[in-house]
Design brief:
The chain has helices at 24-36, 51-67, 69-72, 105-114, 131-140, 154-162, 185-191, 209-218, 271-282, 286-302, and strands spanning 4-9, 11-12, 15-16, 39-47, 78-81, 119-124, 144-147, 167-168, 197-201, 224-227, 239-243, 246-250, 256-257. By secondary structure, the protein is of the alpha/beta class. It is globular.
């Protein structure tokens, strides 16, 4: 199986999109490796950092797409994850909390302009100040808005859906290990799964297989999207790797740990590996896997 469409790729095969030393040669190498692994299209993902740094990194990717045909052939756009996310411990994940900020149309415009028309997806937290206005603005400009790294209430999620929210980013992650047993972000989003698409990281670490199986049974088939959330360690195996200036340790089971081993920092599992595990661990058939890894993300980006 091939033709995967991956909406969330921080890096791959030793290359980090959030590395200021990123160059065209590295981007081309990454694109070739992803193509070899059956990926037809993906979104380089720029995560929260100092605002000028994010602008510079988005521009760097856009320049490579505009300069090299083989990059343009596989890069389907840019995913900006942050900085309009929750700063609270757990919800902020591996993003630097001191760089998180309120949402504003002016700031969103700067991020979009840096992408030279290539920003296709923005992840934000619906509860942050200004998020509703920014969600409406981005939607009106044909940019997909996802909620993520968020503790939004049911009312805040519904309000965001009303103005264009289309996706929830990697449900089950970007949240604390311990939460209220009933009223938590996972249960809130699952209760709205008939209204938005939901992405999941299917590596067996970010969500245990038994829990992922429960989530997948709850979400309509047309609303499930599998993403890798890959970092530079993807495809390389255990060891130490970089993600946006921080050191990530990949253990022998391919779990990617931020410093302190308290939370994951992206994923070291490739899409072909996820597909194999979805089939082997959960018995998911090829037709559903194709929908989750190709058809649904393609339809989301197409509007």
């Amino acid at each position: 199986m091939s033709g995967y469409v991956d909406l969330q790729v921080n890096g791959y095969a030793g290359v980090d999109f959030n590395d200021d030393a990123l160059n065209d040669h590295s981007i081309i190498s990454l694109c070739r490796r992803m193509r070899d692994d059956g990926v037809a299209s993906f979104l380089p993902t720029i995560i929260t950092d100092d605002f000028p740094v994010m602008i510079r990194r988005i521009t760097r990717v856009a320049e490579a797409v505009q300069s090299h045909a083989e990059v343009a052939e596989i890069v389907g756009g840019i995913h900006v994850e942050g900085p309009f996310i929750s700063p609270l411990p757990g919800f902020v994940g591996a993003h630097p909390a001191d760089c998180v900020c309120d949402a504003s149309i002016d700031a969103a415009m700067q991020l979009i302009d840096a992408g030279r028309g290539l920003v296709r997806l923005v992840t934000l937290a619906p509860e942050v100040h200004g998020a509703i206005e920014v969600t409406r603005y981005l939607t009106d400009h044909s940019i997909v808005v996802a909620a993520g790294h968020s503790d939004a209430s049911i009312a805040q999620l519904r309000a965001s859906i009303d103005v264009g929210l289309k996706l929830f980013t990697h449900l089950g992650n970007g949240c604390p290990v311990q939460m209220h047993r009933h009223d938590n972000i996972i249960q809130r989003v699952l209760s709205l799964s008939d209204q938005i698409k939901i992405s999941f990281i299917a590596d067996g670490h970010h969500i245990p297989w038994f829990a992922l199986g429960n989530y997948l049974q709850r979400v309509p088939n047309d609303n499930i999207v599998i993403v890798t959330d890959a970092i530079s360690a993807a495809g390389l195996g255990p060891g130490f790797h970089r993600l946006a200036g921080q050191m990530v340790e990949v253990d022998q089971h391919l779990a990617a740990w931020a410093e302190g081993h308290q939370q994951f920092a992206g994923c070291a599992t490739t899409m072909p590996q996820m597909v194999q595990m979805l089939a082997g661990r959960l018995g998911i058939d090829a037709e559903r896997i194709d929908r989750w890894t190709r058809i649904n993300p393609t339809e989301l980006l197409a509007g």
